[in-house]
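TA notes, week 10

Several of you asked for a full example with nothing omitted. So below is the full record: structure tokens for the whole chain, then the designed sequence directly under it. When grading your own attempts, check the secondary structure regions first.
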């Protein structure tokens, strides 16, 4: 029995106890006062128990790390937590990153703001020559669906980061990518200080965030693709999508990269990247919203996913 099941069991036992007390008091008051329910402690007792239940509920539990649990529940192909190493925290653990240029880590507590994880760390990219490579394998070259997700915090705005031009104004920086000429799978930020996502041939398969990036702030950015549709989310909110038969990517055999592109030179990321996850499917809007909420310590028992439905909170 895990902590959550234990808490749920206590909550259920508490409710049962209160109900039993109420029944008993009703029985007693019926006997004493000829049928009128006037047990004076019942109200306060219920309030007390409900308050205790709320305090004990998973929404406020801080002992565990909901964000990483949610990521694991969605079964990523690659998951670099970047907590002082480049290991792959996915089920297989078989795709660790390789650091190039001197990527380092924040001290404990300097990573993305994940509730319940005060020791989280992120990778630091100098914006000059730092990046991470994850070697390609045949099963990583997704053409039928993909999601790229990461937390990012810019030290400098993309518009101030470099003079690399992929659009006007200059300032292209890669977040997570599997770049290829006309075979894009690229999540990046540009000189307009917005997030951009490219699929296949690129423009017109390019979408842009509404969010304008501010330096020194954390963002959870997520991009999804499946044939015909591409979407871009910031902090769990869908900000852009394109729905067209042109939205198609083909396999390109390039390695994955974090913090720079292996095809488009000079797009070095200036700042922190954390909890980079890559999936072989397009996550749903609900799943992406849940991920962001999980970072705030809120666990959703959503109705859209039977495996994580409300039924599982009842022991
Ligand atoms: Ca981390
Ligand atoms: Ca360096």
């Amino acid at each position: 029995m895990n902590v959550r099941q234990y808490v749920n069991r206590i909550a259920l036992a508490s409710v049962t106890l209160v109900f039993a007390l109420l029944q008993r008091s009703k029985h007693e008051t019926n006997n004493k006062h000829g049928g009128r329910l006037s047990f004076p402690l019942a109200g306060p007792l219920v309030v007390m128990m409900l308050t205790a239940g709320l305090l004990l509920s998973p929404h406020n539990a801080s002992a565990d790390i909901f964000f990483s649990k949610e990521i694991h529940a969605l079964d990523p192909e690659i998951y670099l937590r970047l907590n002082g190493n480049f290991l792959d925290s996915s089920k297989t653990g078989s795709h660790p990153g390789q650091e190039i240029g001197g990527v380092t880590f924040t001290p404990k507590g300097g990573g993305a703001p994940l509730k319940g994880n005060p020791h989280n760390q992120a990778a630091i990219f100098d914006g000059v020559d730092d990046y991470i490579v994850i070697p390609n394998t045949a099963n990583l070259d997704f053409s039928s669906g993909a999601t790229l997700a990461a937390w990012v915090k810019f030290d400098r705005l993309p518009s101030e980061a470099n003079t690399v031009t992929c659009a006007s104004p200059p300032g292209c920086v890669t977040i997570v990518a599997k770049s290829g000429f006309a075979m894009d799978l690229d999540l990046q930020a540009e000189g307009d200080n917005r997030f951009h996502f490219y699929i296949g041939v690129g423009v017109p398969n390019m979408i842009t965030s509404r969010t304008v990036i501010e330096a020194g702030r954390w963002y959870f950015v997520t991009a999804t693709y499946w044939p015909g549709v591409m979407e871009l989310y910031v902090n769990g909110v869908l900000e852009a999508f394109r729905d067209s038969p042109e939205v198609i990517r083909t396999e390109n055999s390039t390695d994955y990269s974090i913090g720079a592109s292996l095809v488009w030179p000079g797009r070095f990321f200036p700042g922190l990247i954390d909890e980079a996850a890559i999936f072989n499917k397009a996550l749903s809007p609900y799943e992406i919203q849940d991920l962001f909420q999980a970072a705030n310590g809120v666990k959703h028992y959503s109705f859209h996913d039977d495996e994580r439905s409300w039924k599982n909170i009842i022991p």
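Helices lie at 3-33, 42-56, 66-73, 158-161, 285-295. Use that as a sanity check on your answer.
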